[in-house]
Amino acid sequence: MHRSILLILIILCFSLNASDKSSIRSETSKSEIEKMQFEITSAGIDFGEIDPENNETVKNNAVSIIIKSDVNWILTVTAENDLISEEGIYIPVNHLFIRTFKSRFLPIKINRPVIIASGMSTGKNGEEINLDFKLELGKYNTSGDYSTRIYFELLSAF
């Protein structure tokens, strides 16, 4: 049985603004209750003006998530759409990457969750996950403000 928590973050103008928390409590049997919650503690990120000569921009520790779980867990990320400007110009979302713990960057995908972290029961203090973001652009990308929705989901892993 999978239980999940879904938290929606919005990227606007290449900035990520979030301060939210979510939790789930479900009965898995009469004697067992699982509890999972996570909280985004970051105020946001801003890639700012990007020089087309520089192919990539990295924001280290751009988002911090605190996970508290009584069970083993998996954290995933997915995007709703490509990055789209007000003028209707888009940049494929696979130009936006994410990583944890200084691991390798993984591309964010549309409607296809990517596992970015997992762990065992965290105890009452929880576990902090710091996320780095990377945006890869080239001379062919049009300047402008782009946005998309990013979803984080916390799943129980039995």
Quick summary of this structure?
This protein is mainly β.
Detailed description of the structure:
This protein is mainly beta and 158 residues long. The protein has one domain (4-156): Immunoglobulin-like (Sandwich), CATH 2.60.40. The chain has no helices and 14 strands. It has strands spanning 4-12, 15-17, 21-27, 33-40, 45-46, 56-69, 73-79, 83-85, 90-91, 96-100, 106-107, 114-119, 127-136, 146-156. The strands form two sheets. Strands 1, 2, 5, 7, 8, 9, 12 and 14 form an eight-stranded antiparallel β-sheet that branches. β3 (21-27) and β4 form a beta hairpin.
Strand content: over 45%
User: How many distinct beta strands?
Assistant: 14
Q: So, CATH architecture?
A: Sandwich
Please mark out the parts with pLDDT under 50 across 5 or more consecutive residues, or reply none: 1-31
Structural class: mainly beta
Radius of gyration: 17 Å
Shape type:
elongated
Q: What share of the residues lie within helices?
A: under 10%
Please write the CATH class name.
Answer: Mainly Beta
Q: Could you describe the largest sheet, including whether it forms a barrel?
A: 8 strands, antiparallel
What number of structural domains do the residues give?
1
- The string of secondary-structure elements, in order, is EEEEEEEEEEEEEE
* CATH third-tier fold name: Immunoglobulin-like
Number of helices: 0
pLDDT average, as an integer? 77
Please outline the helices and strands.
Elements: E1 4-12, E2 15-17, E3 21-27, E4 33-40, E5 45-46, E6 56-69, E7 73-79, E8 83-85, E9 90-91, E10 96-100, E11 106-107, E12 114-119, E13 127-136, E14 146-156
